[in-house]
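Friendly challenge for the regulars: who can give me the structure tokens for this chain first? No prize, just bragging rights.
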Amino acid sequence: MENFNEIINRYNTNSCKWDECKEKCGKDVLQLAVADMDFKSPKEILEKMFEIVKHGIFGYTMLPKTYFDSIVNWYSKRYNWDIKKEWILYSPRVGIGVSLIIKNMTEIGDSIIMLTPAYPPLKDAIVKNNRKLIEVPLILENNKYVIDFKNLEKSIEKNTKIFLLCNPHNPTGRVFNKLELEKIVDFCDKNNLLIVSDEIHCDLIFNPNKHIPIGMLEKAKERSIICSSITKTFNVPGVITSNLIIPNFEIREHMKKILDVAMIHNPNIFAAGITEVAYNECEYWLEEVINYIFNNRLFLKKYLEVNFPKLKLIDAEGTYLAWIDFRKLGLDDKELESLFINKCNVNVYIGEHFGEVGKGFIRVNLATPKENIEKFLKSIEKIYN
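First reply, four minutes later:
Bragging rights claimed.
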């Protein structure tokens, strides 16, 4: 069993989560905002990295056949989806892939649909490329977010080109079921939309829920690009590596040219080796970390119910993100952010970070030792009372 309770000092490691946030906050605070884990990656990945470093030469790299085999086998084992090796294209990170798709497969002024609240870099990829963002807010029903399909039907415009899906959904933790995905695909099929699906959290699912890669659905197969990575799953986001899975030949060939023009040719020195090791040898670690995160989530939920009944943890089927409703406290987001940093010494993502419909909520990273969740909960007393 891994020791996920170990508190590891991450300061002075060039950590975006800890060092950069310390600069932003102006002091040491508990960092529960940025979405990476405070756990060591699996020992097999560390050993592979040591092996690469020990070799001592860091030349240009390529992707061997065994790299693609490991991805194919993972998708077969975890999702019962038989993907082909030729469907897989390397991209440095999901955000880069999404941005390149938007820039090269749509025109300036075209519109792109997203379900909100939404992960900000995905929205940025739309807006910063001078495309129009169409927000379709999720509806909170019985403490769970659902898709407003009536609103979705009304949202379409003549120049809408892409449905940008995030599944599992960040920040709400929804894992959309087969019926929901089929309705999305029917909508995209009817309106001839490309489906770009950010599935970076796909491996972090709580039992008995199941993630369904949208490309598995027959109507989606010929109009979808699935963005995936080992980085969230095995806590290696600093390696910068991801894949685009594209079943459609024409879309795939177009994407190859896009990547070539962007001069994305050689992967990170660690990418191929640790992807193979992660997918071939580290499934046990994933199961352990999911269980630990789920227990953190359960602890958080029960503590809120007993001690802070005005606050509500929104139900989720996956990810290591907790989306908490603070609206009953009557604080605006600027007040809430100031209170967390200045009174509680805790940094979380405030809801407006994810758009207008996120106001009054906060996002908390649960992939951290339980001791940090306890500190976070104790700190809420300073706001709640």
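The mean pLDDT is 97. The first helix runs from residue 16 to 25. Your move, everyone else.
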